[in-house]
Amino acid sequence: MNSVKVILGFLELALALKFLSNADLVAGWGILKREVFLGLWVILTFMLTLHLLGFIKFPNQKKESISKFRYFFSSLSFALTIYLLVGIFSKDNTLKFLSGFPPPVFYSFQADESDCPLGLECYKDFEIGREKAFDFNKPILLDFTGWACVNCRKMEENVWSEPRVYSLLKDNFIIISLYVDDRKKLDISDQFDYQYPNGSIRNINTVGKKWATFQAINFKTASQPFYILMNPNGTLLNTPIQYVDSKTFYKWLEIGLENQSKIIPKLKYLNLSN
Predict the structure, then answer these.
(1) Measuring CA to CA, which of 57, 60, 90, 258 is 20 to 30 A from 102?
(2) What is the CATH number of domain 117-262?
(3) E strands along the chain, which residues?
(4) 142, β-bridge pairs
(5) Where in the chain are the domains?
(6) Residue 193: beta bridge partners?
């Protein structure tokens, strides 16, 4: 029973680091970069391995024989340690098995200049991205996401990373990623009060609140990830989707490109002006 308590203690520490990592991402402290986070997890999993093998004991723990059960779990713990180590030092290993738990690849000391998923070019302001879409005559992939959104990271690391999906995104779309939990303060001139239909008023004073309100007003939802394909003039090119597999996402993008070439008049037109 004492061993079970110790194992649960290590698990709690690992999860506590995850929650601290979320806070670090949202606040932009830059403390728990990907390598630091993974390094701490490596220490925890390696210490757990040593404990299961009897090399580390804690107060009030009696000497126990190493059962097959403990050997099995120590092997799993050590395998996870090696897996995490490879993820720290190899750019090719994105730790898909743990996708969504470590900080994103671009939140790293080894990351390229781009702070967008997978090194893709993206814009974090809707109007700036929209202007680029007009300039290049490309459709927009509007990506409502969040720094602390696990499913967003899973989509980026498991679906967007698929070669054919990645190629389609890179060559054919203007990506606009709007982080609804971004706590960066808006300039005073850009802050405003938004009144909901029920009469309640919300002060929009951060970037995240601005994009969350933008999503709620135009798309009647507050979930992430949430993806919209649109023409720069606001015409929807396909039905918005959320978390899906790579095959579905690729087909969704293809249909959007087909509709872009047709500019179907009957699709809903959004008034996206301020």
Answers:
(1) 57
(2) 3.40.30.10
(3) 122-123, 140-145, 174-179, 192-195, 201-204, 226-230
(4) 176, 228
(5) 2-98, 117-262
(6) 203
Contact 126, 214 (CB under 8 A): yes
Structure tokens at 261: 């070439």
- Chain-centre distance of CA 103, in angstroms? 8
If you write DSSP's letter for every residue of 190-258 in order, what string do you get?
Answer: G-EEEE-TTS-EEEE-BHHHHHHHHHHHHHS---SSEEEEE-TTSBB-S--B-S--HHHHHHHHHHHHH
Amino acid at the residue 105: V
Q: Per mean pLDDT, which of 111-125, 130-144, 184-198, 251-265 is the most reliable?
A: 130-144
What's the distance, Cα to Cα, between the start and end of the chain in Å?
A: 61
Q: What is the pLDDT of residues 41-59, one digit of tens each?
A: 999 999 999 988 888 877 7
Name the helix (H) or strand (E) containing 44. Answer: helix 34-52
pTM over 0.85: no
Closest CA to 213 of 233, 228, 230, 191: 191
CB 176 within 8 A of CB 140: yes
pLDDT of amino acid 267: 45
**Which tokens belong to 139?**
């459709």
- The DSSP letter of residue 269 is B
The single-letter DSSP state of residue 264 is -
